[in-house]
Amino acid sequence: MFLPRIMASTTILALLLSLSSCAGYKVHPVQVKPPEQYDSSASDESLYAAVDPLDNEQKVRGIFNTDLNKAGFLAVNVIIRNDSDEPFQIDKKQVYLVDRNGIQLLPTNAEQMIQSAGTSIAKWYLISGIIGGISASRAKKKMRDDFINKELTDQVIPSGVAIFGFLYYQHIVDEQGAKEYKIIIGNSTAGKPLEVLIK
User: Which domains does the chain have, with CATH numbers?
Assistant: First the structure.
């Protein structure tokens, strides 16, 4: 059964207006616990670290309101507490991911992630319900800013202080997610890398 052309056009227009009014990107807060309360954690005499990978759609949407995994990226929340008596310099280029095959990956910063995604960025917007117009431009900026604001930055961690932030790895997880992957902090002041096995 076919709708009359005028009625069909009106229906489509109404649908687009409805979608536009719902279009947007929601920034979700990140709930963080002390590192020792995570299953995936490890410590040495200088650092206590934990990791929380967003390796399924439900987890990643709960933080970024879109599915980064479908765009080929794994976001990992890294929580680090400095248990030494001295300040600790965290360099995110020294925090790398090792998959089950032993392949090591360095993180991609948020700006590079957006650029390297190419046409995939359009998929993120589409998945998030962003379809066009001024509201869509604002939503795109909000999404971009969210990726950047939640990213782990290079910084000095004072003694007794804990920090957290997301690192983005260009990697597609399988149905097992990131189980049995490792995050390795290569510049631990203990003199050797600190490995955190993802459970």
Answer: 5-197 (2.60.40.1240)
Residue 150: other Cβ atoms inside 10 A: 20
Number of other CB atoms surrounding residue 198 within 10 Å: 21
125-156 pLDDT tens trace: 555 555 555 566 777 788 889 999 999 999 99
Going by C-beta distance under 8 Å and a sequence separation of 6 or more, which residues neighbour residue 16?
A: 131
CA distance linking residue 77 with residue 32, whole number of Å:
9
Q: State both tokens at 139.
A: 């939503």
Strand-strand pairing, 104-105 and 155-157: unpaired
Question: pLDDT by residue (tens digit) across 11-31?
Answer: 333 333 333 334 567 899 999
C-beta separation of 34 from 81 below 8 A: yes
> Does the model's pTM come out above 0.85?
no
Q: Spell out a b/e string for 63-102, using b for 16 or more CB atoms within 10 Å of the CB, else e.
A: bbbbbbbebebbbbbbbbbbbbeeebebebebbbbbbeee
